[in-house]
């Protein structure tokens, strides 16, 4: 029925369902996990104007099943999340404690607090109860009357219901265990299980129900523990909002509404939020180091702290354009965006260095001309040569900017594999290159002129250049 509903969407090609988990220790999916893998048709066959987000919303509206919460994700990132953080959504609130019922109660309170937070989607509590267990409660007084032991009952229950191994079969290089148990018709109900015969030493065969009570009882479908403590979980994805702001608001709301938890119980945030925190901590070290390396490189190139700062001042202007373009595209701040800004800083400084080198070359020509004739350099001559240095080398500076833009702009409308990862990296670089190039072409020559005028007024219009050259 579910497959038929999904296939009614024109963009869906194939549907594959999976229930449970693989019989291997490398699969950390819970037993109750049900996955439906949907393969879409090529985008050329989609309806006009429809996007992947529209398809997900349409499917989510059609697949609302009572008691079941849909969590939409990609197959690979789902497995990566599960392997890296142990969960299958973007964020998880882990609830630690000593009693499963108390953990489940706290998890329900956490879920209720998170329901109305913007950006929180696919919210649900990892089930702690709901499993069915067959209990065989042995009556020890009855065992004594019939001359039986607990081991006698356990052996019968194990071999009749669970199956006991009796040997192995070898097929090529593979070996398979052979087990024997009662047929399906003799163990498919509690009434049939009660009639399983037990052989007594003196009274012949008696049914199992004479020495044990057999019944089903509720229990956890899967007991999860971490750091030697029982653990429950509240899981959710973040949509249409950045991860950091959403989790920060959720933490504030939980702290205000949950109050002080009972002794031995506490909450812990996990999932992609852990990666975000680690990324922020790394960037706190990386960004200053990047700027320091850029400044040292500039100083070694110009042998002047003033001109190194003159080139480094292009970084804030690049930051402005990158931030605006990221905002207009609606991309949330992430580690990928931060990487794009770091790359942008290098491009902006590179084009700024080209401008300063040409301006210094024009100044050297002026100094050489006036230094030989021992004439005073006037402000008009200084402006003339600065303008000449900025204008006559306009072509290589624009070429440097265009090479970066021509290589990055096609990513804006790319739709292939990996385009969703490249877009957050490229957006800051494109916006920053535009604003930084404007600053470099128009503002940098002006700042350079002001710096040289100040230098001449302070040390004399001729002596400073006679000393250097």
Mean pLDDT over the full residue set: 81
- Unreliable runs: 462-469
Shape: elongated
Number of helices: 16
State the end-to-end distance: 87 Å
Q: Which sequence of SSEs, written as H and E, runs from N to C?
A: HEEHHEHEEHHEEHEEEEEHEHHHHHHHH
**CATH topology type of the largest domain:** Multidrug efflux transporter AcrB transmembrane fold
User: Biggest sheet, in brief?
Assistant: 5 strands, antiparallel
Radius of gyration: 36 Å
| SS strand fraction | 15-25%
Strand runs, count: 13
What does this structure look like?
The protein is of the alpha+beta class. The chain has 4 domains: 1-68, no CATH class; 73-130 and 220-271, Alpha-Beta Plaits, CATH 3.30.70.1440; 133-217, Multidrug efflux transporter AcrB TolC docking domain, DN and DC subdomains; 304-468, Up-down Bundle (Multidrug efflux transporter AcrB transmembrane fold). The protein has 16 helices and 13 strands. It has helices spanning 2-7, 52-62, 75-85, 100-114, 140-146, 150-162, 190-194, 243-258, 272-302, 305-312, 314-328, 335-373, 379-391, 394-408, 419-459, 463-468, and strands at 12-19, 34-40, 91-97, 120-125, 131-138, 164-171, 174-180, 197-199, 205-207, 212-219, 225-226, 229-238, 266-271. Strands 3, 4, 11, 12 and 13 form a 5-stranded antiparallel beta sheet that branches. A two-stranded antiparallel ribbon has the order 1-2. Residues 462-469 have low confidence and may be disordered.
């Amino acid at each position: 029925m579910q497959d038929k509903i999904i296939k009614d969407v024109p963009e869906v090609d194939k549907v594959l369902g999976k229930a449970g988990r693989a019989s291997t220790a490398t699969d950390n999916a819970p037993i109750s996990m049900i996955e439906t893998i949907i393969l879409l048709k090529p985008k050329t066959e989609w309806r006009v104007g429809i996007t992947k987000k529209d398809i997900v919303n349409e499917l989510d509206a059609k697949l609302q099943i009572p008691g079941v919460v849909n969590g939409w994700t990609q197959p690979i990132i789902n497995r990566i999340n599960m392997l890296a953080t142990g969960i299958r959504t973007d964020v998880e609130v882990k609830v630690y404690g000593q009693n499963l019922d108390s953990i489940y109660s706290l998890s329900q309170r956490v879920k209720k607090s998170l329901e109305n937070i913007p950006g929180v989607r696919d919210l649900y509590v990892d089930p702690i109860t709901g499993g069915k267990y067959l209990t065989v409660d042995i009556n020890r007084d009855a065992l004594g009357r019939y001359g039986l032991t607990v081991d006698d009952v356990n052996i019968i229950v194990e071999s009749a219901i669970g199956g006991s191994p009796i040997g192995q079969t070898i097929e090529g290089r593979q070996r398979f265990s052979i087990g024997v148990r009662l047929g399906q018709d003799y163990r498919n109900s509690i009434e049939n299980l009660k009639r399983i015969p037990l052989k007594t030493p003196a009274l012949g065969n008696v049914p199992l129900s004479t020495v044990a009570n057999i019944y089903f009882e509720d229990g956890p479908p899967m007991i999860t523990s971490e750091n030697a403590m029982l653990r429950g979980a509240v899981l959710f994805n973040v949509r249409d909002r950045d991860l950091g702001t959403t989790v920060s608001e959720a933490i504030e709301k939980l702290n205000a509404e949950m109050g002080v938890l009972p002794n031995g119980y506490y909450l812990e945030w996990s999932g992609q939020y852990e990666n975000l925190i680690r990324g922020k901590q790394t960037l706190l070290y990386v960004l200053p180091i990047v700027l320091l390396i850029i400044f040292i490189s500039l100083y070694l190139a110009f042998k002047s702290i003033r001109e190194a700062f003159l080139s480094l001042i292009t970084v804030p202007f690049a930051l402005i354009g990158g931030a605006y373009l990221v905002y207009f595209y609606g991309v949330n701040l992430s580690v990928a965006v931060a990487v794009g800004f770091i790359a942008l800083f290098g491009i902006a400084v590179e084009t700024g260095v080209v401008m300063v080198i040409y301006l210094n070359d024009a100044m050297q020509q002026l100094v050489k001309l006036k230094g030989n004739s021992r004439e005073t350099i006037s402000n008009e001559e200084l402006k003339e040569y600065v303008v000449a240095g900025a204008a006559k080398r306009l072509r290589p500076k624009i070429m440097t900017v265009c090479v970066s833009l021509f290589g990055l702009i096609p990513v804006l409308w790319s739709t292939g594999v990996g385009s969703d990862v490249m877009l957050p990296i490229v957006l800051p670089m494109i916006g920053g290159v535009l604003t930084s190039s404007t600053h470099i072409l128009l503002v940098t020559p002006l700042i350079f002129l002001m710096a040289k005028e100040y230098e001449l007024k302070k040390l004399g219009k001729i002596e400073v250049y006679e000393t250097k050259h």
